[in-house]
Design brief:
This protein is an all-alpha fold. Helix content is 68%, strand content 0%. Helix 1 packs antiparallel against helix 2, helix 1 crosses helix 3 and helix 7 packs across helix 8. It comes from Flavobacterium nackdongense.
Length: 164
């Protein structure tokens, strides 16, 4: 692949890496699992990047790829994922900017969200990112009305979990 394509990918990924970190946090417990999932999502984004046509924003496309990767990997009971050597890539995207201490303050909420099913987790995540229901429905492949109904039900579930 061309250097321009690689540079474009790295630039977009750096600008949107918090999307990946937040998805990793929702679908993993612990720093090692977080790093593993971050790496796998980055690899899947890189593999799919040449097919990215720009019909939607990069962030919307990255959400979809990241969510699909997280859901696919963590639905499996065994985690035997074939990956490429991440360190050998010319451009290394570090996750040093991610603040694990700040994450601790959100521990209760994450714990509650972690109890939700995969689609509910994705919906909550995008909702908390102030995505409108149009973008949420496009990313998750559901209708806008369905996204609104699901979100209202999820809010009720979270209230029960956080305030038993």
């Amino acid at each position: 692949m061309s250097d321009d394509l690689e540079q474009s990918f790295v630039q977009q990924l750096k600008a949107n890496q918090n999307i990946i970190h937040k998805i990793c946090r929702l679908y993993t417990n612990g720093e090692d699992a977080h790093k593993d999932l971050f790496q796998e999502i980055t690899i899947q984004l890189w593999k799919a990047f040449p097919k990215f046509r720009g019909d939607s924003k990069f962030s919307t496309w990255a959400y979809r790829v990241a969510l699909n990767t997280a859901i696919t990997l963590y639905r499996k009971s065994t985690r035997s994922v074939k990956t490429i050597d991440y360190e050998s890539q010319q451009y290394f995207i570090s996750n040093e900017d991610y603040n694990y201490e700040e994450e601790e303050r959100l521990k209760l909420m994450y714990k509650a969200v972690y109890q939700l099913n995969d689609i509910e987790k994705a919906l909550v995540y995008m909702y908390l990112e102030d995505k409108d229901y149009g973008e949420i429905s496009e990313t998750l492949g559901i209708s806008e009305v369905n996204a609104r109904v699901k979100m209202n039900r999820i809010k009720g579930k979270l209230k029960k979990i956080l305030n038993p």
